[in-house]
Design goal:
The protein is of the alpha+beta class. The protein contains 5 helices and 4 strands; from the N terminus they run E-H-E-E-H-H-E-H-H. The protein has helices at about 20-30, 60-65, 80-85, 105-115, 125-135, and strands at about 5-10, 35-45, 50, 90-100. A 4-stranded antiparallel beta sheet has the order 1-4-2-3. Strand 2 and strand 3 (about 50) form a beta hairpin. The chain starts with a strand and ends with a helix.
């Protein structure tokens, strides 16, 4: 298995339309990622939080989730829903996505076969890299 990442994307005004699903599907179809879990978290104007998983989804949401081949791996739980729900502004939606970086699996196998041990991993935000590169170029 390749490295596993997660991302939480907020949609203020509860404007989650599913428009990002085709791009996620494209990445999955290309063998770049494999979606392991996806939950839609909503917060209404009164601060009530609800999490929609595949088994709880309405027809439109269920179709979008099923198009990704998500079968509910149960990697995300109640604590995740509560934490991200609490962080949401009123009248907002959050897509919480967990995926495997399938592209990296052969590299992971090679490192293991070479008796390599992961010491650290991390992510540098794109805006910081872009800013640093722009400063270096000037």
């Amino acid at each position: 298995m390749g490295p596993v990442d997660y991302i939480a994307i907020a949609f203020p005004g509860n404007k989650f339309s599913g428009a990002i699903i085709p791009e996620i599907k494209r990445l999955q179809d290309a063998g770049t990622i494999r979606v392991l879990d996806l939950v839609i978290i909503t917060k209404d104007g009164d601060g009530n939080v609800a999490a929609v998983e595949l088994q709880d989804a309405g027809p439109e949401e269920a179709a979008a989730l099923q198009s990704l081949g998500i079968h509910g791996q149960n990697l995300l739980g109640q604590e995740d829903f509560e934490d991200f729900g609490e962080a949401l502004d009123l009248n907002s939606t959050c897509g919480l996505l967990v995926w495997e970086n399938v592209w990296a699996a052969p590299f992971v196998d090679t490192v293991r076969d070479a008796d390599g041990i992961m010491l650290a991993a991390g992510r540098i935000p794109a805006d910081i890299v872009e800013e640093t590169m722009a400063l270096a170029a000037s």
